[in-house]
Design a protein that fits this description.
It is found in: Mitochondrion membrane. The protein contains 1 helix and no strands.
Length: 55
């Protein structure tokens, strides 16, 4: 069965992953996000307990 021969496919996979990690990924990570996350702490809303009329 030729599809079980890893000889050509392993090289293609290795080449594609190296291309992605060494060339494409640094270019993608160099972009500045337009909406950066804030360091502001979220405010928790003040809630009051509900009084049930049948208890």
């Amino acid at each position: 069965m030729p599809q079980l021969n890893p000889n050509p496919w392993f090289f293609i996979m290795l080449t594609s992953w190296l291309t992605f990690t060494l060339i494409i990924q640094p270019k993608l990570l160099s972009f500045i996000t337009m909406n950066p996350p804030h360091s502001k702490t979220p405010e928790t809303p003040k809630t009051t307990p509900w009084t049930w009329p049948w208890t």
